[in-house]
Amino acid sequence: MKRLLLILWRFSKADLRMLWSALSHPERPFWLRPATFLLVVYALAPFNFVIPVLGIVDDLVLVPLLLHFMISLLPRHVKMPGRVTAVR
Question: Which of 2, 15, 28, 59 has the most crowded CB, counting CB atoms within 10 A?
Answer without folding.
Answer: 15
